[in-house]
Amino acid sequence: MEAVLQVVPVVGETTWSFVHRVAAAYGLDAADLTGEWQSANWTQHKDRGCAGGEVLLDEVAQEQLARWCRVPAGYLARALPSWAAGPQALAGRGGDGRGWMRWRTGVLEWGSVVFGCGLCAAQRGGGGRRVWVYGPQWQRLWVRHGRWLLEPGGGHPLRWVEVASLAQELGRAQRRWARVTRAAKEGGVAPREVNSWPLTPFAQ
């Protein structure tokens, strides 16, 4: 498969989301790409389409994906939180030149998943397909386009809400969250316990 289009990941994107977008750029399904790799474990087909699912790739599969999307593997390693876990999780496999993958529940290791900014994803290629990124509840403001990112499966059809009028205030709060995190740890609680309320400004 010779790359003809460039697809760039959104920072924080799940690898599984990125595989979907690379496939879409070629008019393919994600299964067409993963079919090139051997799977180290099995997952039900319905689970492969959920936002919290993740796919880890060994070095051979990573190199292939980098060629298909025309983005250096080093950049993918910086943008995709689960990228570095692949070679370690699949160590000892391979040897025949074919890539390996392993299914994983990403939310258990890299945190909750939200819809990414569609405007940014569209600018990075992938046929305008939806994008999933890892985003803790206290860091979901997408400053560039003034959007608050929402979780999939929240009982509504929205992927984000426009918060441009609140972006400055929310941005300040988000930047200060590091102090809240430190205080939470000192107090013996997790940051998510401090910020236990969802921001759902649906009045628009």
Describe the structure.
- This protein is 35% helix and 13% strand.
- It is α+β, with helices and mostly antiparallel strands and 204 residues long.
- It has two domains: 15-110, no CATH class; 136-194, no CATH class.
- The strands form three sheets. A three-stranded mixed sheet has the order 1-3-2. A three-stranded antiparallel sheet has the order 6-7-8. A two-stranded antiparallel ribbon has the order 4-5.
- A hairpin with a 4-residue loop joins strand 6 (141-142) and strand 7.
- It is globular.
- Residues 196-204 have low confidence and may be disordered.
Which key phrases capture this entry?
204 residues, alpha+beta, three-stranded mixed β-sheet, 10 helices, 35% helix, 13% strand, disordered C terminus
Outline of this structure?
By secondary structure, this protein is of the alpha+beta class. The chain has helices spanning 15-25, 30-34, 59-69, 73-79, 85-89, 107-110, 118-123, 167-175, 177-186, 191-194; strands at 38-39, 53-57, 100-105, 113-115, 132-134, 141-142, 147-149, 160-162. The chain folds into two domains: 15-110, no CATH class; 136-194, no CATH class.
Strand content: 5-15%
Cα separation of the termini: 45 Å
Share in helix: 25-40%
What is the overall shape?
A: globular
Number of helices: 10
Mean pLDDT: 83
**SSE-based structural type:** alpha+beta
- Unreliable stretches (pLDDT < 50, length at least 5) are 196-204
Whole-number total of structural domains: 2
Largest sheet: 3 strands, mixed
Radius of gyration: 18 Å
Summarize the helix and strand pattern as letters: HHEEHHHEHEHEEEEHHH
Record field, number of beta strands:
8
Order of strands in the sheet with most strands: 1-3-2
